[in-house]
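#struct-queue
[09:14] JT: dropping the first one here, sequence first, then the structure tokens:
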Amino acid sequence: MWKFSLYSKAHSRVSAFSNRLSAFATSGFRRGYHEDVVYGYRVPKKFEYPDYSPEQLKNRQKQAALVCLVEAFRSTGHRATDLDPLKLQKTPTIPELDPARYGLVNSDEQFNLDGILATAPNKASKTATIEQIRQMLVDTYCGHVAFEFEHIPDTAEKRWFADYVELTSKDNGFNANKQRRALELLARSETFDNFMQKKFGQVKRYGLEGAESAIVALDELFSLCSHSGITEAVLGMPHRGRLNILIDLLKYPPRALFHKLHGNAEFPESLPASGDVISHISSSPKLNYGGKDDLNVTMLHNPSHLEAVNPVVSGYGRAKQMYLYDKNTDPSCALGDRLIGIQIHGDAAFTGQGVIMETLGLSNLPHFSLGGTVHIIINNQIGYTTPATNARSTLYTSDVGKLVNAPIIHVNGDYPEEVARAMRIAFGYRKLFRKDVIVDLITFRRWGHNELDEPSFTQPQMYNIIRARKSVPKKYEQKLVEDGVISQADAEQTRASFAKYLEAELAASKDYTPQADHLKGKWSGLVMSTQAVSQLDTGVAKEVLREVGEKSVSVDQAFKVHPRLMKHHIQPRLKHLAEGTSIDWATAESLAFGSLLKEGYNIRLCGQDVGRGTFSQRHAMFVCQETEQVFVPLNNIDSTQGKLEVANSNLSELAVLGFEYGVSIQSPNILPIWEAQFGDFNNTAQVIIDTYISSGEAKWLRQSGLVMLLPHGYDGAGPEHSSSRVERFLQMCNIPMDMSNRSVVQNPNMHVAIPTTPAQIFHLLRRQMKRNYRKPLVVAGPKTLLRLSAAKSALDDMAPGTSFKPVIPDTLSKSCENVKRIIFAAGKHYYDLAVAHGQQPAEVRDRIAIVRVEEICPFPHKEIRDELARFPNAQEYVWCQEETMNAGVFSFVQPRLESIIPTNSRLRYIGRPPLAAPVTGISKVFKAEQAQILSEALSFN
């Protein structure tokens, strides 16, 4: 018998509610599990409330008018609540909440509430008059906390939510000790903001003033987590209130903050870090809230782009759960039992930023679910200078959460105890249903967008009210003093003591020595790279390659594979593996995956339709034609292997790529791969690329081994689906431009490669995990090369002693001494040049060499010098590409190649002229341009 318990024994005030749910359990509802496809997470199944008893159904039928009134309060009561601390919004009259609308008049008649309301004034008989019922409904649904849950399609969830709210409406769970704790947090937060204003008055700190109750909300949530067996919390939040939470809850040393505010770096000077602003710093403390285990809170770094951290939190948490749900742990442990995701948002951003909707869209999907995230909107009722009427088209900023049918709890931030109650309700829902829940914490912003701003320029009435009122901490302090919970002297002592502590920390900041935590825990075996390692022995014994290759297409006889796959995928792969030749792209990729899995690494392959592959080439998963069962063959190599997670994503790029970045920074032992359906799809994930992937290590010392596979190549597919915009990635790379000095050390922030053979992608993928550091890898990958007969490799190319080749030397010229023109090319265009080269007269062919540049960043200057040395009589140097002149890699390679070729030579460009679009969409023009490029590259005047 499974026993439900929302809270620990420390929360005995809701024991009656727990007993009620236990009674439901004996009536037949259970929590069951199904296995996750990969990691063995046990996921709570949907459960059902017991049906109404015949007596309850009869009573509901008899009291149909009363049922309508109760349902009206549950669905629209939130419209009649006191939620605005500033009283700027008038509470409307809601006709649906008038009992007379349903023919119910105020009288002494007793109404039976069994099956209609979860509680009653007279609990023994469950009866009440209409006035008693109305008042109870007003107290429950129209106070300082409001609820939206009737939009949830699942009846069981709605009934649970209504029962929980109604049963706990008169008990906020706060005793004197918790009141004192809340006031202490509020007072310290206000003291910190005042201290910062006094000592660093010209700093934009984005303080919590006006929204101090958010710190009470987090404190309550951390306590609930600790007493419920959760040991890990992953937290993402923007700038507002970040410093307050870091200093007060997350144990960030004030001296470290003050050290940085004096203009110093937050990392040791010996480390190659560019650093970041104070509103992006982070902390990962262990917190003791009295639970069985400490609560490890990981606050992730965030960029200035609003809400971009949200999918990163989800990905980081998903990856972390892989280690929390090891197959040797408690088999009853379910997804979300040990880890929780927490995301804090701004109100204008929650409505306006598409990443919110995209991240919510991942929340209930296989391979992306975190077991429920608690969202807290710090609702200042204004975005920068934009009022709500200009910031959204919805009634509430939280309405976008209805995209995933998340329940929404609105709460007035002037009432810290009600804020804590809202968090308990949110946590209870998340704990049971393992779904996202939203708390809309309605507050205000005492200053402008930052402390240097003048908000009354645009909101004079709002700020007249704000400046005339007491702060939230002062109001709560007054309440507790009047109630006799604390004395005025105690309250003043709390503030004075914390101010004294901050003064001491400020003094200590002068001698503070920064520390770094970037290579600890799972990352302890890695180093900070000082020089790019491009060539590394990543070969694998051929018997191992054959083993994993065969396993990659092995299924049980009872599993019905599509006959075309058997004929065109499985049988050819087995044949070529046996022969050791004609290894195609998909096979080489499987060999890389399988060999890494055998070595104990885990791999996560993610993107739209990646299991099959956009071009129907990969088939990393098979679907039984009779049962539609999904089978991942590479997860059945041996009992000690790592796991391959094939995560077919929804139609999102921004959130999905952010999710995979989160996976990548959680562990160096997971190879996370995101494949765009077409290369240009990365455009809609540019925020993640700019603010995380390309710069995360420089700003925060956080390494990432994320691989981006971006199909690229001009094949008549039109403007969009041709180019991965590789030029943009190269623009973000940080390697030197002048390569004339041979002592120049390249240590790029990310690698960019355009491989042309299956063996090359095999080595690239293995190199990601075999180096003793992690760097992002951008692969401008193939489309037509996936099946091109010329683009095949042998097992010998992947055997021990082999490695990735940044440059593939020319193999077309007969005599190096006769070569007059050297053509540099990259990617699929090489094969077009090679075919056209073979069609030229012998005297022309002998005078031209074609060199493939496979890795663009870091730039392979040594390998190119070595290749040029083979052609002593070369006179012309050409970069030839199919892309337009303002796209592709030409602008990146030009200055670097010109620093290598003879000083009396210049690099000639042959390719399409500059164009606003990546390429023409007119087939005749496209073909003519391509013919002209090949003709010019291979013709002599």
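[09:21] JT: and here's the second one, same format:
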Amino acid sequence: MRFCRTFAALTSLLLAVALSAEAQAKPEVKVHWLKPDTARASVGTTWGTPWPQGAVQAQSEFTLSAESGSLPVQSWPLAYWPDGSVKWSGHAIAPLAVNTDSLTLAPGKGPQPEQALTVREDKNSIRVDTGAIQAVLSKSGTQLIQSISRQGRETLHNGHLIILAQNQAEPKVGEPLTVNAFNGQLNTVTLEQDGPLRAVIKVEGKHLGENGRAWIPFVVRLYFYAGDDSVRLVHSMIYDGDQNQDFIRGVGVRFNVPMDGPLHDRHVRFSGESNGLFAEGVRGITGLRRDPGEAVRQAQIDGRATPPLNQWAKSVSDRINVIPAFGDYTLTQLSADAFAIRKRTQPGLAWVDSAAGGRSSGLGYIGSPEGGVAFGIRDFWQSHPSQLDIRNAATDSAQVTLWFWSPESRAMDMRFYHDGMGLDTHEKQLDAMGVTYEDYEPGFADATGVARTSELRLWALPATPDRDTTVQMARTLAEPPQMVARPKDYKAAGVFGAALWSLPDRSTPAKAAIEDQLDFYLDHYLTQVEEHHWYGFWDYGDVMHSYDHDRHTWRYDVGGFAWANSELSPDIWLWYSFLRTGRADVFSMAEAMTRHTGEVDVYHLGRFEGLGSRHNVKHWGDSAKQLRISTPANRRFYYYLTADERVGDLMRATLGAERRLLDVPPLRKLNRPQPDFAGKPYSMMMGLGTDWNSVAAAWLTEWERTGEPEYKDKLLRAMRSIGEFKQGLLSSGTAYDPDTSRFYRVGEGVSGSHLAMVFGGVEINAELIQLLDVPEYEAAFIQYGRFFNASREEKADIIGQPYNRNLNLGQAHSRMTAYSAWKLDDKALANRAWGEFFDAKAGIKVYGAPYPSNTITPPAVLAPVTEARGVSTNAVSQFGLTAIQIMALISEQAPENIPERD
């Protein structure tokens, strides 16, 4: 066996050397638009690109080439290989002047931009000039954006954050309902990038009220690109109120727009569904009893300046002042399927219903032929209740508010959904889990510390855009241009545990059946999001845990069976699925999930900071606060693929989160005696499963991102200490010293938890072994893989003692058997792994035919739904990851056909 291990290691080394030599000979990556039909030419974009180890040196520049020649590109390192070479690089480009679907990225010196973005910073402000627009950003006070100008004309000013809060969840007869406003107070402003093609400014602060209360911390990043007339804002808010008395009524961004020209030349636009567009003049001149003239009417319809009044029909021009001007407009999207537009002439007078529809893409515009502002919220209908307001358009200064949470909706209610039902002891709570699967504990269903990130974009325009251009901007808002590499280039780079995934393979009937089933699950979950309306401000991006076939719905109201909250790694399943297929719809779903699970399901301040919440009816409702939910293992993919700074912050924030386990012991309800830490070299208990894997993911990611040795050394010390244990990763009763990053044995025996490796553990450990040479740790991981699904006799032989406990999730752990077989070059073990996979213990069998699904129609349900037997998010996520990984690791040993099973 030792020879096999040595041979496998030598083979891997030779393969790595060959890949590295090939990469060094001609390292280049083809990149393309994620969605080929994206309206991409109008805005800049950022993405991440992987490189094989040794291919690109740390200080390398990059060149980006199209068929027409080289393009300017701004580049920076995102991650490093252990040898110091670049593993991931970040890149930004200005709006493209060439229309191309494929570009080539390679090390080398590219051209400088003809007009670079410039940034000037002083003690009071940061000034950004993209060449198209000029922005002045404050460094203190409440003005996030002092002004944005174009061609010497101020287009908008006084951009600031606003929150409305009320003292009750809903009005009560006889009790006064009070609403207070809070404006964002800037505390810290950081210039993170300053060009030449991309500038990033990070703003942090809290919302301040007239009563002096400062709450709801925020982080806003503003993104500018050379030649781009838009600014992208990524807005994150953290809830830190009292959920029993602080009910947020509205969350938004507000600014003023100077208004020029006659009222009939001022224009309002709102996007609807698809290419739908609401377009009107503040003072309409069509449909009157008298006709001002075709040229006049057509100019207003087109958004152009109308001819002078002396060219109008006098029957209209002489009466222009008695035509009502509508100064206020509102677009509300209070559910996923209904928006409404209304207008009024001025406050204090009645609203007039103007239009309605299903799903607005969330773009608005106010301006005139002299200039104006287009504005919008990404995922507008998906993240309802949302709203766009235009006020005072008939005055010299219009006011625009983009509401991430509409003030016309119900107030934001962060309370738990039940009163505790008398579950006031751990014994009662554990007993209740037996029926609802909910791990409830008083005081733990707390929303203090959860966050939400939203994205918006502002365009400073020289004139009212025509209808086609407005529709294109709405498309850009809804689907921003995203550059990606080809699946084969991600694979060739060796990233994300290179051995664990491969490109789709349908070369045999068995493999084709597996690939078909993988595709079915991706399509099914995309369908489920739509059929069951998994949308909303706090919910969009997550999926449900388990299905109720009696009611024909997911168990949205049943304890621990409701929102999945990353249980058994659906995030990682989706990202590996994208890497190997390049599917844009899968990327979009994974992106939404990453945004959600990293913000809503994790605490960012307070007593649980750094921990996440187990699955529940309310995302933060479960009392199990865990590292396995906050782990960077779920978020590394999106960060490296997009270079997203907010997700980078979230991953870094988990460093040191393991210390929270001192205050929130994971096993506190089991009444297990705690060891005496006095005088010991350790200070806390920590298992070698989900907790250790989460800590390792945080350290690995920080080491990759910085190249600094501190976190590499922590990994090495921890891994070596685990490898010294006789039973390695199977050891029970392990303690940890956060100061030295070493583990110690406190108890005796062997531990084999079915959950230990299914929250990113397999994936993170495969990367650790790929990147760090710790033979004793590698042996421990291989031992774990051989042990888990082995027979009792084999288990006893592996660990040298009897082991009679039954372990669950056999199919999910067949990929660990496969990993061990791959490492040991053990064909018998590989055959065992395939048998475990097809046996589908606590998993899903491979059907080899269309998956058994059917459509349920009314009146059995409210609306038609698609059901698939055996589908739960746990099972599907682990089936997906296992199928992908076992196909990559031991593909050659796969049976030709699906084995017949009893």
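[09:30] RK: nice, looked through the second one.
[09:31] RK: Residues 118-307+323-439+451-478 form a domain with the Beta-galactosidase; Chain A, domain 5 fold (CATH 2.70.98).
[09:31] JT: good to know. The two ends are 33 Å apart (CA to CA).
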